[in-house]
Design brief:
Helix content: 10-25%
Low-confidence stretches: none
Structural class: alpha+beta
Largest sheet: 14 strands, mixed
Length: 340
């Protein structure tokens, strides 16, 4: 589909080529019962100065993940354009309807934005927003930073996320950017090979790509937010948009992990999940991972769940209540392990 359609249907109030700092919106049309010619105003900001790479920074892809949007809002307000060498394009609350309603998915169309890229400029609201980012913003970019947390349903070890590159050179650049972020661990995540994520689309557009997972549980983590603030500036200094004086020293290199096809422990029952281990625990394939209890059937024996691979307990479902198909635990395996 012609990329100009997204630009035509979704006008922005900022000039992406103008130097200095601008804060505005791009308008996604939304014609509903009580507002025939209404729009969804998605916030966008641009800080440009001189020659250098263009970095696109995204937060709020899921509306119940807060560390990224907070850190990006602070940077939009506080950053002096004179310190920038290049251009920063901020979309701090990209899924604006979901952010307003504190939901993972949009209340307008019920869609998870991070499974809808490259989007559709003629589709529903979520697909239109994704299409604008993919068709209008991504062609401007050299680097993409996609800030996520675990949201309401997951608690995850704060980490940098490595998007598998489309070439060995791009993959190496993605790994280097994740290492520059400075999290204790960096995890290669391909979302079970799903190509519809923002990071996968950014990689296809040829950008260097880094993501994050910053704790979760639908709250703001003090430690994860501090890491997010430092990490963003570290990456921007790494790619040359900010001076090295803006970066924080990294004492220990991130340990590299990956999520394999055996990473997820899935419920097959309807009940309450009891985990056996805390996040960060080293576990072994076949070991007891947790139990599902049946609270209204006290005579029924709990069902045991077991790890399918060895590694580090990386993520845990936040609500205790589970249904068949729910992901209860996620195990990260050391990157490149032969038996992974």
């Amino acid at each position: 589909m012609d990329r100009n359609i997204a630009k035509q249907l979704t006008p922005a109030t900022v000039d992406f080529d103008k130097p200095g700092k601008q804060i505005g919106v791009f308008h996604v049309p939304l014609s509903v019962h009580d507002d025939a010619w209404g729009v969804v105003p998605v916030p966008v900001a641009v800080i440009g100065n001189g020659k250098g790479p263009t970095v696109i920074l995204e937060g709020g892809n899921h509306g119940d993940e807060y560390e990224g949007p907070i850190a990006l809002g602070e940077m939009i307000r506080d950053l002096d354009p004179a310190t920038v060498q290049g251009r920063l394009i901020f979309i701090p609350a990209i899924n604006q309807p979901a952010v307003v309603s504190a939901r993972r998915t949009s209340p307008i169309d019920g869609i998870n934005m991070n499974r809808t890229f490259p989007g559709d400029p003629m589709g529903t609201t979520t697909r239109q927003i994704a299409a604008y980012v993919n068709d209008v913003l991504f062609p401007m970019g050299d680097v993409f930073i996609d800030l996520h947390s675990g949201g309401s349903s997951l608690d995850i070890i704060p980490s940098a996320v490595i998007e598998p590159g489309t070439t060995p050179e791009q993959h190496a650049a993605n790994v280097a950017a994740a290492q520059a972020f400075g999290a204790p661990i960096a995890v290669v995540i391909d979302n079970r090979g799903d190509p519809r994520t923002a990071t996968a689309s950014a990689a296809l557009a040829g950008m260097t790509v880094i993501g994050t997972e910053m704790a979760g549980g639908g709250t703001v983590s003090i430690d994860a937010l501090a890491l997010c603030r430092r990490g963003i500036r570290n990456v921007l200094a790494h790619v040359g948009v900010l001076p090295q004086s803006e970066a924080s020293p990294i004492e220990t290199a991130s340990k590299l992990y990956e999520l394999t096809s055996l990473a997820h422990v899935i419920s097959e029952d309807d009940g309450v999940f009891e985990p056996m281990h805390r996040l960060g625990t080293d576990v072994v394939a076949g070991e007891l991972a947790g139990r599902i209890h049946f609270l209204t059937q006290p005579g029924r024996t709990p069902v045991d769940l077991h790890y399918r691979t060895s590694g580090l307990v990386y993520g845990r479902r936040q609500p205790g209540r589970v249904r068949p198909g729910n992901c209860c635990l996620v195990v990260a395996t050391p990157y490149g392990r032969p038996d992974a």
